[in-house]
Amino acid sequence: MDYGRRNTKKYSFRCSDLKELRKLSSFVLDPLNFKQHHVKLLSIFSADVVEGLLSVLVQFYDPIYSCFTFSYYQLMPMLEEYAYRLGIAVSSRVPFSGLEEIPRSHLIAEALHLKKSEIEAHWVKKGGLFGFPSDFLIKEATGFSQASSVDTFESIFVLLIYGLSLFPNIDDFVDVNAIRLFLVGNPVPTLLGDMYFSLHLRNSKGGGTIVCCIPLLHKWFISHFPQTLAFMEKKQCLRWSQRLMSLTNDHIVWYDPSLSSLEIIDCYGELSNVPNIGTQGRINNNPALARRQLGKGRPELGPRICVALEAYTLWVKKRALELKMPYPCERPMSMVVVEPLTLPNQDVEVLEDALAKMKQEKDMWEERFRALSKKHEELQLESKDKDALIELLEDRVTKRQREPKCNPKGFLSRRIPLNTLQTGARRVARGGFPPYLQVGQENCDRHWKLIEFITKMSKVHSSSTS
């Protein structure tokens, strides 16, 4: 079917520099504990946004129904989906209205575990709003992480996520609205309101900069993409506009079973339009159009199925015909035949250089591994030799302790006859040692003392016999 063509509009997106924020994420000492308190915030600001995808998506925005109208279907971000992607339940607290008073310095200091004087010293005005320069908060968070002050670090880190990723407004600045939302702890309705209001405003102006949480919008959109290999393989061969125009009802992932336990908000009292209030303004949308994305959740809507009735499908096609499409129609995705991708020679050379570099690095690490393994084996052998030497020395010490000690008393206790002693003394005098004195040859002084003792005893014996 030919839906006609309408002109595309030039959009851009406010994206804060999150490089320093990603560095701070490496200081999270206990990621599991952090996720329990702040669940999926890390995955939101650390997600890679596919270049060009959202620029194509916003071309399909339908200002009358505040949704994205394609050739065969409609999609719209819903409160329940945003809450699930963030891991933050929609609180029963009153959501952000923009009428809240500016938080007092002692309340901010208490929430961030900082001194009141520090809060007041860095509370400045930029772009018509009060807030904190991001470099001040980054410096404080870095300091407290190095000091292992976990509570203070995480509080400042989460505020930076609110100000730079969830509610980006002014570059390198966390404004008072982000601080209010951080203190209230109910950001989901405001995130949805920011997206709808900014997109609707830029659409009415014919283009411009869309200010909302871009990573969250991107995460929501790709969750409805076909989860098939065929779709992913065409990623490098077809432009995003061609890929989206080739999708039909059957290709879209409509319903996530994880949302089955959530309470659906698809009306405001008796009104089908639900107001969404963001930090910049308010806009209504009609969630009833997206019940299919939640499996027709309410009991009165019937069982949870994602099949569109024929009347609804015809109505969507009629609306697409009225709105016209921003890109030419494409054959359904399953019928598209893609030519093989041929890389330019320059790209091949770059890949070959990268491959050669990786091989060099691989060889270097293997060589280091072999050297360390050899060193390990040498140390093991040296350790075994030392163990054997220690065991040998211990055996010698044990044997030495068991041997009888040689001393004069022990020597005389053998009752050697006196004439034998005298004969031995004469032999010593001539320069030799009898067999029973051989044990002391290593100590000449000791031997001469023994000789003197034998001579003395000989004289005593002679006098006693006479």
UniProtKB/TrEMBL annotation:
It comes from the Eukaryota. It holds the Pfam family DUF7745. Keywords: Coiled coil. Residues 21-296 form the DUF7745 domain. The keyword Glycoprotein does not apply. Residues 348-396 form a coiled coil. The keyword Phosphoprotein does not apply. InterPro entries: DUF7745 (IPR056647). This is DUF7745 domain-containing protein. It comes from Pisum sativum.
